[in-house]
Structure prediction request, 358 residues.
Amino acid sequence: MRYPLDCEASFDKTLLFWMSRYLHSKLNSLSNRQVKDPTRLASVITRLRGGAESLAELSRLAKEARNAGLTGINTYYKPLEKLYAYLSDLGPASMREIDEELISDFLASATAGLSDATKKNYRIAMINFFGYIDKQNAETDGKAHHFGIELKNWGGLGGKSGTKLPSYMREEEVERFIEAIETYPFQAVVSARNRLLIKLILFTGIRVGEALSLTRRDLIPEGDVYLIRITGKGNKARIVMIKRTHIDGYLKEWLQIAECKGEYLFCNRKGTPLTQAYVSRMVEKILMKAGIRKEKNGAHMLRHTFATMLYLKKKDLVLVQEALGHASLDTSRIYTHFDKERLKEAASVMDEIAKESK
Prediction:
């Protein structure tokens, strides 16, 4: 049976679903000659059919399979544990935002200091996992999304690194994008909702999932700003701010007609939460209207744009980490690569020596 690529309401749940399916497949395909407790292994396989409810449960099942004697399972599963943490911290909106560049970035950070043999195992695990999804996903039209993860030039094993920096909008593109938000022909009943949602993500850098989890009580007016309470990864709380002038009109208009269940701020016409895939499609349409084309056009690109602008204007990496809710400063460090002024300093370091040598 095949499944839609983004088969769950959130990215984290979708990734967990595919990891559960993949682990189930591996338990059935790895050599079982060393299995000492077939009954225990059969129990794990049965429990995996319905999918794990959390990463902790999935890790527990993988450990049970190993204790039953299926020792090779860790080679494939342990790298996925780290991949889950890495992608959850980045917070993409859709599985479609994953590509070879992103996986190369992950491998570069996750395998630093590990042996070449272990690096090779991580590479194989990534190719194997995404190759499995390539074969098992299918949309309503029957077509499958193809990741095509090969990692032939991954730099961790002596080859050239093929990684690139995250996609983001330059300032003039941001201006065009904001204008396109205002003029995009949304249906009247959802126009205020959509403009409010996209502006919240662009102007604060919050993850799409964090935006969709907001309740009315999470927006607290204080002077000329709204304080926004965010519950991030691992239930970590933080506060972000947005100027009231950016969203006040749309917020008031939306609240007058919104009938969301559970006090959610954003919902569809049935009152249930929006999906991350819907938000990504909406962002892609606005980008198209603005004539902006990036390698990664999804909603997560807005978060990269905010983070890039924040670092370039404030030069404060800790501020980027706090604003975006990154668990590690290393995740935020990618945005220092956009700092052209710092690069100019590096480019001029030999100038004086060059003058003296003339």
